[in-house]
Amino acid sequence: MAGILIVAEHMDGALRDITGEMIGAAAGLKDPLGGALMVAVIGDEDGSLAEAANLEGVDEVISVKAPHTHFDAALYEEAVCTLAEERAPSTILIAHSAAGMAYGPAVAARLGSGFASDVFEVKVEAGELNTTRGGYGGKVNIELGFPGKGCVTLMLRGATFPAPEGTGSASMATLAPDFSTLAGQSSHLEYQPAPPADVDIAKADFIISVGRAVQDDKNIPTFAALADRLGATFGCSRPVADSGWLPKAHQVGQSGTIASNCKLYIALGISGAVQHLAGMKHVETIIAVNTDANAPMFNVAHYGATVDIFELAEALEKEFN
Ligand SMILES: Cc1cc2nc3c(=O)[nH]c(=O)nc-3n(C[C@H](O)[C@H](O)[C@H](O)COP(=O)(O)OP(=O)(O)OC[C@H]3O[C@@H](n4cnc5c(N)ncnc54)[C@H](O)[C@@H]3O)c2cc1C
Question: CATH number of the domain at 4-182, out of 3.40.50.620, 3.40.50.280, 2.10.109.10, 3.40.50.410?
Fold first, then answer.
């Protein structure tokens, strides 16, 4: 078994960012593992997605003919298992996303392959694939190897691996698996997009986030105005989003959005739980403001102040006026 098979993720006629990120992650594994880097695009109506998947480092793009273009877990499972049989890859990469979770584990079970989900680090040591993944709700990092496994299926965390920027010179192939056994098992009703978000945490380079310390939705406008004045994107911790004080799109962290492009992050009244840190601890400059000097946020902060966030907002307001 040799080569890396990446299953492209697409929605609404466009590849999702995670597809390029998986290609970026695979580029570093290709030489030590050996074999070709293949990308499978399932349900690509006119070949445009296959073209878009032809990024630097890709050797072959396989357009898998499907009865429809929308995501269907059973169809993806069937297609990937057929591809695994045809191409015999040593590694299969699937997005750790809502769609990936719906078929990735089933693929691994059917193939009897090694398996890890939520993988954020992957390397080859002494010819063996080793990965690191989150565990216990993100509280610990778990290192996993797969001794004796000829094939390993990995689900990669998004916004973690850099995607290649250049286009590739991959050969194009098509595959038409037999999906007849799936006929009538399920039907697609409609695609309901998420409500449009007023912020893009993943792309923001400066974020000011508030935590539970804001106490009430009535206090949100004070901090939103502060972020606006300073030219920052307004983020929050999960309790703020869960309480409905800000839309979910503002939430930073493991079950929110990772601040992948952020250079400056100001955390106002956020304790620094591991799940929040998962979305921002990599940021170049972190400033923490918290009345509790022992708050874990200070462990990752480059600058900190044990100050009440309301007093800070008031003082800054006076400074502006
Ligand atoms: C599976 C899972 C996924 C999760 N995903 C996420 C996620 O994506 N993002 C996320 O944020 N959380 C996530 N959580 C929740 C996470 O565990 C924490 O509960 C959450 O991050 C805490 O939010 P917080 O820091 O705002 O609140 P708290 O932990 O209550 O901290 C509030 C902080 O404010 C300080 N404070 C209080 N008053 C003031 C004041 N006036 N001035 C200054 N400081 C003050 C306190 O000292 C305290 O440190 C997840 C949890 C689980 C189990």
Answer: 3.40.50.620
Contact, 89 vs 113, CB < 8 A? no
Write out the H or E segment, with its range, that includes residue 320.
Answer: helix 309-320
User: What are the pLDDT digits (tens) for 145-200?
Assistant: 999 999 999 999 987 899 999 999 999 999 999 999 998 888 888 888 777 788 99
Measured from CB, residues less than 6 Å from any atom of ligand 1 are 137, 211-213, 237-239, 251-256, 269-271, 273, 275-276, 279, 289-292, 295, 308-310
- Of 147, 280, 290, 150, the C-alpha closest to 214 is 290
Indicate the pTM of the whole model: 0.79
Q: Which atom of ligand 1 is nearest to the CA of 237?
A: 11
User: What CATH number does the domain located at 206-320 have?
Assistant: 3.40.50.1220
